[in-house]
Write a structure and sequence with these properties.
The structure holds 2 protein chains of 2 kinds.
Chain A (H helix, E strand, L loop, with lengths): L2 H22 L3 H21 L3 H26 L11 H24 L18 H9 L3 H22 L3
Chain B lengths: L1 H19 L5 H21 L17 H25 L6 H20 L3 H19 L6 H32 L14 E2 L3 E2 H17 L8 H8 L2 H29 L6 H21 L4 H21 L3 H27 L11 H4 L1 H15 L5 H16 L3 H27 L11 H19 L2 H4 L5
Antiparallel strand pairs in B: 1-2
Helix pairs in contact in B: 1-2, 1-4, 2-3, 2-4, 3-4, 3-9, 3-12, 3-17, 4-5, 4-9, 5-6, 5-9, 6-7, 6-8, 7-9, 8-9, 8-11, 9-11, 9-12, 10-11, 10-16, 11-12, 11-15, 11-16, 12-14, 12-15, 12-17, 14-16, 14-17, 15-17
Classes of the chains: A mainly alpha, B mainly alpha.
Chain lengths: 167, 464
């Protein structure tokens, strides 16, 4: 077993374990903390695939921004056992059915598509996810939309200041 | 290209002006000058004098149609700033920023005139609408304005989400964001024409664009937002922005919907939307007591007429939508310019305006006649081109008859204003009217009659 394989199995087990823990922990704050572990181990997978940019962005956006938002909401709502709304049996049933359907689709998509079978990952030698390639595409082919989105952000910024400022 | 970049630059200039220029009254002069620069630059661009040359990799496509629409939009906003620019300084201390936001909107409008890719379509729509949310809520002390802004923001965000979903589905069905698609080699084509995913995506895009141009049954935000927003900005939203929405829409129809018409009956869908829009717009406008709210519903009704160009995507429709956007924009800007000066926005508020301000009443009559589509005004030829385009397609002739009936209904509520101005006794109160304002109104009225007598004055530019 090479190092990357060991790392792969370790990260996979970690990701699956913490994903299960997200579901089974009773305290919502613990769930969120386990979710952070999930995101970190998925970022580890991205690193293994030589996709550094995706790994960093995943940590910044999901583990950073979105998780803080989750924590905020949970702490703001101040959930405890008494105030927890009763869940309908039908709702649980439909939740299981739709989740199971999604799983079936994922599994069958991986099993049936011959062209991605056996090459689901480019370990060690993949270079699609490198920042160099991303930058080349972004500043050459997609230069115009990239630059023009700065106008969008600028207008949103001006708008926020205009709305937020005292008269 | 000139217009897109220069409008963004001028928006930044307006922002800098907000703290470098001391006199508040100067902002509208700077803005008017900027729009003039944009107008000249756009015309120069039309004839090949582009200031910025770089490979945009097919994200934009520069056609005569796009250039001409862009010139019309910039010219209309120039007229708008010249006539009603003074009123903008009424709302708060951020006059320069409001003008900056208007220039950002112009950047979005220019992008929509030239887009050739769903990515640029999305960016253009967003650059165009985000400043509008702010302009809607610019009257911060007024609860109605706040409510309108929040409503517009929430509904607009949802429609943006639907648009993104549509773009994603369309990408899944074709493998490209570009408007031009080669469908050879895509597996499982529905009716051997288009992928099922693409059709779902185009339907979602249709929903969100119909929302942006306020076509029924996606029009519910329009009356509240147009009524709640400060009248000056309603005028801008109802004219230039709406016309730009239609230009974006017709481009999508010309390319994508024509190509997939064998898989799905777009004509039937548009016919249903048109009938619903005309019905809702015209019938509800009849019962309004406030002129501003009536104009909001009338803008829905006018959108119903503009939708004919999407129904019959041919050369007549392309010419018609240009003529319609010019005629409708000029007339509506004029009507709102008069409305802003009124103290009372109800129909009674117009009673006896002809005696107190004969020139305002006369020009307002011209604008209303143009919206109603009376001959010798621009609105007549605009409506004529729309209906002629439908006749040319050779099917759905009953749609033309229905449209003419609804145009007759629209005459009722437009003439109610004229009746109030000329035939009712009252004391219509207006704010101080300056001679330059009167001159501006006269210019717009003259333009409307000029286009009405000789529509080629606009359409010829499409060809040489």
């Amino acid at each position: 077993m090479s190092t990357s394989e060991i790392l792969f199995w370790f990260l996979s087990v970690l990701a699956l374990f913490s994903a299960v823990m997200v579901l089974v922990s009773k305290n919502p704050v613990h769930s969120v903390l386990w979710l952070i572990v999930v995101f970190f181990s998925i970022s580890g997978h991205y690193l293994l695939l030589n996709a550094q940019f995706l790994a960093i962005v995943n940590i910044i956006v999901y583990a950073g921004a979105i998780m803080v938002l989750f924590l905020f909401v949970i702490m703001l709502m101040n959930l405890n056992r008494e105030s927890e709304p009763q869940k309908n049996v039908w709702m649980k049933l439909f939740g299981v059915i739709s989740g199971g359907l999604l799983l079936t689709i994922f599994v069958s998509a991986f099993r049936s598509s011959a062209d991605i079978f056996d090459k689901t990952a480019q370990l060690n030698d993949g270079d699609v996810g490198l920042i160099k390639n991303l930058g080349k595409v972004l500043f050459d082919q997609y230069a115009f939309p990239f630059e023009i989105s700065s106008v969008l952000f600028l207008s949103a910024m001006v708008g926020a200041v205009v709305i937020g400022k005292k008269e | 290209m000139n217009a897109i970049i220069l409008s963004a630059i001028w928006a930044v200039i307006m922002m800098l002006g907000s703290f470098m220029v001391k006199r508040k009254g100067n902002f509208r002069h700077i803005a008017a000058f900027g729009l003039l620069v944009l107008f000249v630059a756009n015309i120069a661009d039309t004839y090949g004098y582009s200031l910025f040359n770089f490979n945009n990799h097919g994200f934009l496509q520069f056609t005569r149609f796009g250039y001409l629409f862009n010139s019309i939009a910039i010219f209309s906003s120039l007229i708008y700033v010249l006539i009603t620019g003074k009123e903008i300084s009424r709302y708060g201390n951020h006059t320069a920023e409001y003008f900056a936001l208007i220039f950002f909107v112009m950047c979005g409008v220019s992008m929509l005139a030239f887009y050739n890719n769903l990515l640029t379509l999305f960016l253009g729509i967003e650059i165009m609408t985000i400043p509008l949310y702010i302009l809607t809520g610019s009257d911060k002390r007024n609860m109605k304005s706040n409510e309108a802004a929040l409503k517009y923001f929430l509904m607009g965000s949802f429609s943006t989400g639907i648009m993104l979903m549509g773009i994603v589905f369309s990408y899944g069905g074709t493998g490209t964001f570009s408007l031009d698609v080669s469908r050879a080699g895509i597996p499982n084509l529905y009716n051997h024409v288009a992928s099922f995913l693409e059709i779902v995506g185009l339907l979602l895009l249709l929903v969100s664009l119909a929302f942006k141009v306020s076509a029924a049954p996606f029009h519910f935000w329009t009356p509240d937002v147009y009524d709640g927003a400060p009248s000056v900005f309603t005028s801008f939203m109802a004219t230039i922005v709406k016309a730009a929405g239609f230009i974006a829409f017709i481009k999508l129809c010309l390319v994508r919907m024509t190509a997939t018409s064998a898989a799905i009956d777009w004509k039937m869908i548009f016919a249903i939307i048109i009938i619903a829009t005309l019905l809702v717009g015209n019938i509800t406008a009849v019962f309004q007591q406030s002129v501003k709210r009536m104009l909001a519903y009338s803008s829905i009704a006018q959108a119903g007429f503009m939708l004919f160009s999407l129904f019959s995507v041919n050369d007549f429709a392309k010419e018609g939508i240009l003529l319609y956007s010019a005629a409708y924009s000029l007339a509506t800007i004029g009507i709102f310019a008069v409305l802003v000066k009124m103290k009372d926005y109800t129909f009674e508020g117009y009673n006896g305006l002809a005696k107190k301000q004969p020139l305002l009443a006369a020009t307002n009559t011209v604008f209303l006649l143009s919206l109603a589509g009376i001959p010798l005004t621009a609105g007549f030829f605009a409506k004529y081109y729309m209906l002629a385009a439908v006749v040319k397609t050779g099917s759905y002739l009953w749609l033309v008859i229905v449209a003419v009936l609804f145009a007759a209904v629209s005459v009722y509520y437009y003439f109610r204003v004229i009746q109030a101005m000329y035939f009712k006794d009252g004391n219509a109160e207006t704010e101080a009217i300056t001679p330059s304002f009167k001159a501006g109104l006269l210019l717009v009225a003259a333009l409307i009659i000029l286009i009405g007598v000789y529509p080629g004055i606009i359409l010829n530019w499409l060809y040489f």
